[in-house]
Structure formats: structure tokens, C-alpha cells
Design the sequence.
């Protein structure tokens, strides 16, 4: 790891900080419009962020190449940390919170599209801060790294390494070649298009522009911050269904969406396997939740269907918008929601969790091994979308599965050690690691994480980073071997 | 073929019933005639299966058949073993009796009998005997009984002990199995003698010994081993530790080939893990209870031995359970004992392979062109074996999650459901951990759905999942 590599990393972080500064400046609009008195502070934060970014970019503009593969892992992690660090500024400057821990938690929760909030009463926050929270999620949801690649395609970075570090095993596990730049451009088009579409749809359903923008930003990115304390519970059913649609799309592979919207349906069949299981899982889970809620909790069919569908989709795409206080629902239903959050949406989407693709490979691999034990001489490789999945890839997926599960368990234990009750520790660990957000108990439903102790909050924000970077990227940084020459 | 083997085993069980019947007459506990009737019924079922349903049996075995046999035997025999509980009226419902019997044969030791003191002594003996037989495995019993199976026995053996590469004690599989039974019986007799020597009653000695060496965990009193002498607990600790060791390796202990222990990495890990866990528990308990005493050390050793071997004995421990022992216990429940022992869990050998693989994997992320091999006991582990372990681990976790899900449907909380599911799939059974997390220790009060879920989990854990899944997979039934 040479000095020039470090400088190149800083050079990469520069433009993103500048972008963050611009986004922060956008928050001036509500500050000015609603006259919430935060205009000077936000302007200052924005200026600082932009200035630091510009400085880094121009100071190190001659360092464009990262030669060491290890540096690209480091870059990804540093990006999230530095951006979150600057994202705490508005919270601290406007006095939304005075504790750095709280601000850091909220910023990390935003950029990792987790959606766990530290504020018990969101509605009391200044309008600029509310927009900033949604904006962070919208920005983070797309993946800062993907933005780097889309905006600066000419950079000489080892793109493939960077891309896999971010979404390890996502596309290459499917067997398709990763043509990074094309993929990223398409993804960006789809993302912007979807955002625009859902803002318009919500406006058409009679929502205020302010709410529509905030909710679309946080739901299309599978984030889950809301400008109201009761999340999305007090919206009209139609608006809730529209948001459920936004969440659903946030869990679908963006390349697939691009093909869908450009009417190239034939090409879609290369990814049908994952889409099918995503739909299948979605329908089965929704059916179970709806029927169980109707039979067990006595909700009328219409309510059970609305609440069950929206909350299940919210969990499965790890969005975390809350339509009803699910912590009061029967235990099996909340349990199922947690499992769905762990499975997550499709690979190459903004959702978190393990991803449907991996779960599918895990199941098929187990089935193949079973076959093999029954008929030892049979040659029957695991197939995905008609293409064989090599043992190497399925082992990769297994490793991620184990690391993910291990992190989850360590998360539960660590939180219990910080004095969180077992049930709540399970909920918070799943919520933070998968990016679902709210957990069980007081931190679930419409609640917040405000009652957690500082160590617990730091641990949660670590879990969020872990989950967003799919564990491996962060873990290899912790190995002594990584730092050796 | 299947019927013949199942019949043979049922007949053996009926023969085994003679012991409880004798005990029953000796203690005059009033269960004599019911037991005789149960034995006769089992004998009749056995004869029917062996001589009528299975009279045209051939001994041509392939992998498919061996899985089939394993699963069927493991389901029919425990169901027959439920007869004595029902006939004597100790347990009223079929669910309860089946639960008790399956829990016995799978060496789990979860019991629906709230007060074991109150049931006839002969049944206590039967309960422990089921564990002892299940300890080494019903299939190993078949292999030992049927010398004619020479070729098929290896496949059967593999079906029961899936995925653990066994070192055979003797090139001839039947002989090797006989040696395993011999060493197993020898340890049992030794333990009975020791327990009787330190002043336990004959019934207690026999029952506890049978439960210990099979890592079962049925106890003879309501509050576990509370009230037994320190010496008894000490002896049990040693034997619980031993019963978590590979049986084949134990053979070396008694034939004085001690060097084998040093080169067996799994055993070394097992021993180190045991000592580390026990000592760290001791420190944690002492600090939390402000009581640095020898009895705390004893308890830590006892508790860890009981957990790591998935035996499941418990006794009265320290008043305060700090965080660390609970977490450690939970992890040890999942990791389990050595491969090829009577204990359950994921088995340390598998975890070692996984750990080594993960380490290599992480290094490869940084240096993509490095080539690695995984070695255990200085031998290379083939890569398809790694893949099998991965699949096994995945299914294991799926079973725990699925089981926990069904448990929550019948009314447990999430944390309780996970503890119950893990404790039963690893064949541990009762554990103070479950109590410390507030779960219900008394299995008797669980609803019926929970009991059947736990039964499936116990069987899945004992058969290491594949054998159980094989018969429900559609591909199994193709090309008949």
C-alpha cells in the first residue's frame, strides 16, 4: 500500500463529498420554504462538505490509479465512513441532537438505507433535517460506489474489484458478465425513472408534495425513514399500496427492471430463476401473514390484506416502513418478517439481507448434495437460469451465508452484553444487519433506538455498515494478513 | 428387506425388555404384567415384520435402500419403544409416549415426565436403556447383529453417520463395529461399578451410567442431579467428557495407544475447548456470585462437560447466571462433540474444516492466486467434502429456523423457540440455559404441535438430516 494509493483514495472521496455538499444544499429549499430557522446552519454544513471535497479532489488530482487490489476494499469502507461522518454535521449544527453518537447512528442508518431512527418524535424535527434523512437514504440506496462508476467511467480503477467488493457475488454469481459501466448507467436510469414515477403517483393519490418526495426517496431506496412519527400508518390505503409498489420495485434487480421497461422481455429470461423465487416467496409470505392476521388477530379481511401486504413487502425488501405496530402481532408473524428480512430482495437491487439469489443457490446446492448421496454416480450440477453454478461459486455463497449468520449471532450477543433484552437484541441485530431498520420490542414498530446505550448504538451502526458491505469487505480489513506486504 | 431389519430390531428390543421386567419383579413396582404384555406385543410385531412382511428379503443394498432402511428403522423402533409407557399407563397420550421414546432413542433426554421418582423403577430403566441403544445407533446394532450384510453394511453405516469421515478400527466393517460395541459396553460397566462404589443405589447407578455414556440425559429425579454427592458428579463429569470423544479413538485409550490422541486434531481441539470453556465459566460464575470456591469450579466443569458432549445433565448451580456462560453454552450446544462419538451437534471436525476453509477464503480475497489445501490430521480434505459440510450446515440452520417457527406458532417466544429448537436438534435436551433465558424446562406442558416439531428435530439431529430428508425428496421415489 503505497503513499500514492492513499492519495488516490482521497482523490476518489473528493467528488463524492462534493456531491454530498450539493445534496445538503438542496435541503436549503425546505428550510427556506417552511422557514424552520435552520438556513444558515445547513448552508454552512453544505459549504464545509463541498469545500473539503473540492480540496481533496484538486489536491490529489494527479493520483488516479489504484494499483493494489486491497486498496479498493479499503476505499469502499472509507467512503461510507467519511460520507457518514460529514452527514452528521447537519444534525449537530441544527441542534436536532447534541450527541455525536446519535448523529452518527442516524447518518449511518441513512447511508446504509437501514432506516432505524434515533428520534422518538420525528415530526418535531426541522423540515430541512427531514429532507436530509430521506436524501441520505436515496443517495446511499443506490450505492455510492455505483455512483462513482457511473459518473467517472474514465477512471483507471480496477472497476471489477470495486464492484464486487460492493455487491460481492451479486451478478457474477448469476453467471452473467459484469459490464460495469453499462450496468451502472442502466441502473441509474431506472432509479431516477422510478423515483420520478412514484413521486407523481403519490401526488396523483392526493399526497402533499413534501411527503411524496420524502417517502419516495426513502422507500425506493429500501431505506424506511419517514417524515411522520407513525411512519406510513396514517396514509390512505391507496397511498400505502403505492408505497408498497415502490418497495417491491426496490427489491428487484435493476438490470431486470431496465429490460422490463425497455420492452426487451426476451432477455429477461436469463434472470427468471431469481425473479420467480422472489415472487413466489413474496406471495407465499403475504398469504401466510394475511390469513394468520385475519384468523388469529381478528382483523377484517380488507385491513388484514392491506396491513399484511404492505408490512410483508416492507420486510422482504428490508425497507422498514411501518404500516401498523407489528410488535403487537402474533409471534409467528413477526418471526416470519425477520426471516424475510434476512432473505432480502434480489441481488443487484437496493435491498439488504442475504439476497434471493444466494438463498436460491444455497437451497439448490443442498438439494444437489442430497441427490449425490442418493445416487453417488450421478453428475448433476447446480443450475441457475439454465447455467451451471460451479462449486467455487456455491462455496463463495456459503461463506457469505456463514459470515452473515455469524455476524448476526455476534450482533445478538454483543447487544445483550450492552444490556439489551434478548428479544430486542435479536430484533435490533436483524434490523441493523439486514437494513430492515426497526426491530422488536421498544425499538420495533413505531419506536426508536433512543433508549439504547451508547455502546449498543455504536455496535448497531457497525452492524449496519457490515450489512451494507455484505460483511466480507469489512471483515478482510480486520485481518492482520490484509495489512502485511 | 426393510421390514426384516426393522422386525429384527423390534425383536431385539423385546428381548431387551426382559431386563426392565426383571427389575419390575425385583422392585415389585406393579408394572410387571403391563411390561410383559408390551414385550409380547413388540415380539409379535417384530416376528410379523421379520418373518411375514420381510420373508423374501435380499441383502442387496444400494445407497437408496440404505437411506430408506435407516429412516424407517429410526421411526418404527422408537414408536414400538413407546409401548411400555402407554401400556403401564405412565403416559396417557400417544404423543407423550412417542416423545419420550424418540427423545430416548435419539439420546436427547428431553422428558415429559415431570416427576421421574413417581413412575415405576422398571420404566426408568427402560428409559435409560433406549438411550443406551440409541447412543451408538440402531444401524450399528443391525450391522453388529447381521454378519451377512458384509457389503451393504458399509453403506448403511455411511447413511447413519453421514458426512463424517470415519476411521475404521478394523478393515472388516462388522468386526470394527463389534469393537465399538465392546468398548461402549466396557465403559458403561466401568461407570456403573464406579457409581455403585461411591454409594449410589443400584438403580441410580445403572440408569445414570446408561444415560451418560450415550450422552442421553434422562435423569432419575425431578430436580436433575441436585443432591448427589460431589464425587458422583465428578465421576460423571469425566465420563461425560469421554463420551463426547470419538468411539474409535476411545478404543485406543484402552489399548494403550495414547499417541493417537495427540495426532488427532479434533480431540486436541475438543479438550482445549472444554478446558477453556470450563475455566472461563468458572471465572464468570465466581465474579458474578462473589464466591471463588472449589464447588463453583466443580459445577463449571460439570456443566461444560454436560453441554459439550450434548449429554444434558443439570444440577443446582450458582444463583446468578452471568452473560458469558449463557452465551458460551448456546454456542457449545450448536458445536457439539467430536465426530463419531455418541454426542450430537454440528461436530467439531466439521467446524474445523469450515474454519480452515474460511481462513483460506479470506486470504484469497486479498491474494487471488494463492492455492490452498485443507489438512486435518495431516491429511488433505477433499473439496467436495467441504461442499457437503456447507450443505449440511445450511440444512441444519434451516431446520433450526423452521423448527423455531413452528414452535412460535404453538405459542413460544422467539428466544425460547430458538433455544428449544437448538437444544433438541443437537440432542442435548434439558439445559440450565433454557431456564436462564426463561423458557419452559418442562416439556410436559408444551402443546402437541410443539412436541411433534421437537420429535422431528431430534430425529433430524440424530440422523444428521440427510437420511431423513432423503426419503421425503421427490427424486428418491423416481425410477423405482
Sequence:
Amino acid at each position: 500500500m503505497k503513499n500514492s494509493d492513499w492519495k488516490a483514495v482521497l482523490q476518489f472521496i473528493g467528488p463524492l463529498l462534493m456531491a454530498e455538499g450539493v445534496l445538503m444544499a438542496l435541503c436549503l429549499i425546505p428550510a427556506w420554504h417552511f422557514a424552520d430557522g435552520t438556513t444558515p446552519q445547513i448552508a454552512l454544513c453544505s459549504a464545509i462538505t463541498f469545500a473539503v471535497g473540492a480540496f481533496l479532489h484538486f489536491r490529489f488530482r494527479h493520483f488516479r490509479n489504484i494499483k493494489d487490489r486491497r486498496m479498493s476494499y479499503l476505499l469502499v469502507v472509507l467512503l461510507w465512513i467519511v460520507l457518514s461522518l460529514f452527514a452528521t454535521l447537519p444534525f449537530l449544527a441544527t441542534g436536532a441532537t447534541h450527541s455525536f453518537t446519535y448523529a452518527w447512528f442516524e447518518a449511518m442508518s441513512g447511508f446504509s438505507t437501514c432506516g432505524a431512527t434515533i428520534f422518538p418524535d420525528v415530526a418535531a424535527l426541522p423540515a430541512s433535517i427531514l429532507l436530509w434523512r430521506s436524501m441520505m437514504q436515496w443517495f446511499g440506496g443506490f450505492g455510492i460506489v455505483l455512483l462513482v462508476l457511473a459518473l467517472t467511467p474514465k477512471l483507471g480503477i480496477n472497476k471489477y474489484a470495486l464492484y464486487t467488493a460492493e455487491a460481492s457475488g451479486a451478478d457474477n454469481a448469476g453467471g452473467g458478465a459484469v459490464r460495469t459501466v453499462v450496468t451502472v448507467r442502466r441502473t441509474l436510469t431506472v432509479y431516477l425513472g422510478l423515483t420520478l414515477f412514484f413521486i407523481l403517483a403519490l401526488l396523483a393519490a392526493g399526497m402533499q408534495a413534501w411527503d411524496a418526495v420524502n417517502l419516495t426517496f426513502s422507500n425506493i431506496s429500501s431505506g424506511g425513514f419517514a417524515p411522520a412519527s407513525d411512519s406510513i400508518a396514517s396514509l390512505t390505503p391507496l397511498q400505502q399500496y403505492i408505497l408498497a409498489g415502490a418497495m417491491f420495485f426496490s427489491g428487484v434487480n435493476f438490470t431486470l427492471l431496465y429490460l422490463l421497461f425497455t420492452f426487451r422481455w426476451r432477455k429477461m429470461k436469463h434472470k427468471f430463476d431469481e425473479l420467480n423465487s422472489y415472487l413466489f416467496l413474496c406471495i407465499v409470505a403475504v398469504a401466510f401473514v394475511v390469513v394468520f392476521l385475519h384468523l388469529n388477530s381478528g382483523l377484517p379481511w380488507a385491513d388484514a390484506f392491506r396491513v399484511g401486504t404492505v408490512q410483508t413487502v416492507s420486510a422482504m425488501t428490508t425497507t422498514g416502513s411501518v404500516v401498523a405496530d407489528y410488535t403487537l402481532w402474533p409471534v409467528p408473524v413477526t418471526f416470519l418478517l425477520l426471516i424475510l428480512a434476512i432473505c432480502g430482495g434480489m441481488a443487484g437491487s437496493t435491498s439488504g439481507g442475504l439476497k434471493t439469489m444466494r438463498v436460491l443457490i444455497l437451497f439448490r446446492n443442498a438439494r444437489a448434495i442430497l441427490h449425490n448421496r442418493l445416487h453417488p454416480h450421478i453428475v448433476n450440477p447446480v443450475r441457475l437460469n439454465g447455467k451451471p453454478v460451479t462449486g467455487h461459486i456455491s462455496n463463495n455463497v456459503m461463506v457469505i451465508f456463514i459470515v452473515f449468520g455469524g455476524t448476526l449471532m455476534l450482533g445478538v450477543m454483543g447487544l445483550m452484553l450492552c444490556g439489551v433484552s434478548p428479544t430486542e437484541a435479536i430484533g435490533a441485530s436483524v434490523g441493523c444487519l439486514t437494513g430492515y431498520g426497526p426491530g422488536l420490542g421498544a425499538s420495533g414498530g413505531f419506536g426508536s433506538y433512543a433508549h439504547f446505550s451508547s455502546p449498543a448504538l455504536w455496535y448497531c451502526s457497525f452492524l449496519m455498515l457490515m450489512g451494507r458491505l455484505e460483511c466480507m469487505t469489512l471483515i478482510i480489513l480486520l485481518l492482520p494478513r490484509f495489512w502485511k506486504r | 428387506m426393510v421390514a426384516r431389519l426393522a422386525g429384527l430390531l423390534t425383536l431385539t428390543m423385546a428381548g431387551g425388555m426382559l431386563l426392565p421386567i426383571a427389575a419390575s419383579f425385583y422392585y415389585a413396582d406393579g408394572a410387571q404384567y403391563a411390561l410383559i404384555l408390551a414385550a409380547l406385543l413388540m415380539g409379535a410385531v417384530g416376528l410379523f415384520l421379520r418373518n411375514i412382511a420381510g420373508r423374501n428379503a435380499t441383502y442387496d443394498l444400494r445407497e437408496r435402500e440404505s437411506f430408506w432402511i435407516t429412516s424407517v428403522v429410526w421411526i418404527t423402533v422408537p414408536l414400538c419403544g413407546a409401548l411400555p409407557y402407554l401400556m403401564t399407563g405412565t403416559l396417557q397420550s400417544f404423543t407423550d409416549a412417542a416423545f419420550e421414546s424418540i427423545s430416548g432413542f435419539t439420546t436427547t433426554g428431553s422428558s415429559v415426565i415431570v416427576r421421574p421418582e413417581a413412575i415405576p423403577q422398571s420404566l426408568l430403566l427402560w428409559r435409560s436403556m433406549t438411550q443406551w441403544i440409541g447412543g451408538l445407533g440402531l444401524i450399528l446394532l443391525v450391522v453388529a447383529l447381521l454378519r451377512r450384510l458384509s457389503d451393504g453394511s458399509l453403506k448403511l453405516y455411511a447413511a447413519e453417520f453421514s458426512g463424517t469421515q470415519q476411521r475404521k478400527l478394523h478393515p472388516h466393517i462388522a468386526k470394527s463395529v463389534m469393537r465399538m460395541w465392546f468398548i461402549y459396553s466396557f465403559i458403561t460397566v466401568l461407570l456403573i461399578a464406579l457409581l455403585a462404589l461411591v454409594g449410589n443405589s443400584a438403580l441410580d447407578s445403572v440408569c445414570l451410567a446408561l444415560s451418560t455414556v450415550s450422552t442421553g440425559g434422562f435423569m432419575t429425579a425431578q430436580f436433575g442431579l441436585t443432591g448427589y454427592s460431589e464425587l458422583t458428579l465428578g465421576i460423571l463429569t469425566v465420563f461425560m467428557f469421554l463420551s463426547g470423544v470419538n468411539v474409535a479413538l476411545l478404543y485406543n485409550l484402552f489399548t494403550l495407544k495414547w499417541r493417537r490422541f495427540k495426532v488427532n486434531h479434533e480431540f486436541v481441539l475438543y479438550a482445549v475447548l472444554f478446558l477453556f470453556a470450563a475455566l472461563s465459566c468458572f471465572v464468570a460464575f465466581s465474579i458474578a456470585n462473589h464466591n471463588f470456591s472449589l464447588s463453583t469450579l466443580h459445577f463449571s466443569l460439570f456443566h461444560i462437560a454436560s453441554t459439550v458432549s450434548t449429554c444434558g445433565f443439570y444440577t443446582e448451580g450458582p444463583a446468578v447466571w452471568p452473560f458469558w456462560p449463557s452465551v458460551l453454552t448456546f454456542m457449545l450446544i450448536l458445536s457439539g462433540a467430536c465426530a463419531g462419538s455418541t454426542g450430537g451437534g454440528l461436530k467439531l471436525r466439521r467446524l474445523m474444516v469450515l474454519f480452515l476453509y474460511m481462513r483460506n477464503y479470506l486470504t484469497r480475497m486479498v491474494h487471488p492466486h494463492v492455492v490452498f489445501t485443507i489438512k486435518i490430521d495431516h491429511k488433505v480434505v477433499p473439496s467436495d467434502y467441504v461442499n457437503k459440510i456447507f450443505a449440511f450446515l445450511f440444512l441444519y440452520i434451516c431446520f433450526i429456523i423452521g423448527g423455531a417457527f413452528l414452535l412460535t406458532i404453538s405459542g413460544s417466544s422467539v428466544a425460547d423457540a430458538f433455544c428449544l429448537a437448538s437444544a433438541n436438534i443437537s440432542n442435548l435436551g434439558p439445559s440450565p440455559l433454557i431456564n436462564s433465558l426463561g423458557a419452559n424446562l418442562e416439556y410436559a406442558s408444551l402443546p402437541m404441535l410443539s412436541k411433534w416439531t421437537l420429535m422431528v428435530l431430534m430425529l433430524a439431529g440424530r440422523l444428521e438430516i440427510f437420511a431423513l430428508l432423503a426419503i421425503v425428496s421427490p427424486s428418491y421415489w423416481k425410477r423405482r
In short: The two ends of chain A are 8 Å apart (CA to CA). Strands of chain A lie at 383-384, 387-388. Chain A touches chain B at residues 69-70, 73, 331-332, 334-336, 338-339, 362, 365-371, 373-376, 391, 394-396, 398-399, 401-403, 405, 413, 416-417, 422-423, 426, 440, 472, 475-476, 479, 481-482 (CB under 8 Å).
